[in-house]
Amino acid sequence: MSLALSRVARKPVTLATPVMLMVEPTTACQLKCPHCPTGRGELTRPTGSLTLDKFKQMWDAIQPAPMLLQLWNQGEPLVNKATPEIIRHATSTGAKVVLSTNVELLAKGDLADRLVSSGLHELILSLDGATPESHAAYRVGGDFALVEQGIKRVVEAKKKLGARYPILTWQFLLFKHNLPEVSEAKRLAKEWGVTRILFKTAQLEAFEQSEGERWLPDDPALRRYDLVAGQWVLKRAPRPFCNRIFASAVVQWDGTVVPCCFDKDGEFVVGNLLEQPFEEVWRGEKFQAFRQRILTGTRPAMCANCTEGLSGMYSQPKLK
Fold this sequence. Notes:
alpha/beta; two-stranded antiparallel ribbon; 12 helices
């Protein structure tokens, strides 16, 4: 109802608490992916991690609790040792939790068991190659053997605990160098016991012609950008209606709230859940002013790379 009324009235209407919340467990990561602000060393926010007590303080203040928790943003969520307990607390309130990871840390200790027993609904496996060489080409510093071992440990933990969940979704970013491995990735997904594999068009963080030519597939159907005057530009309507700022919010590791995950450096902070009641932030002057700007004003630069309104984010490459 809020979405419909905001679209018609051209002013922000927020009738309820958000359906979904994205919470950032940490900004730390062990990899150096070349089109990630953290991997590029360009994130200007301090590195830190969310504690279980602070998560409970923020989450329990939202009534009713969001139906979905996305547990990632910048950084690798499993670097934060409290992540399984954070998931357990969220699921105890009835929320579905989805976690995205680069997988490697699941090969260590009892983390796979703790994750499966936490009640996690879906585990997104960020793996962009079917060989060690291809994987490390983008997941710089990554170890393919640890990824394979981590996935197998989760599958084994599900069997041992008799757990139906988490769903295991392999998210394979399509780059020029890994296209020949699509068939092998499908084979490995079946061999490892992955629930499904999705092939996703890659996102750029640098838009010069040379960057896209280095990373993006030659087939236009397998990339989300067009080359315009030497710059890569997203394929979508210039001003799509933004659903996410009316249905969700992003909470960074230190409690600060930003409108969406494309505000990577916290340029548009609308409040802090460790210092303010959630309702004060969700319907507050800063958040409403941002929503109004998106509805009727000049959008900030971060919106230019946003996937809202983007079609063809997932592709099915044709096998040769």
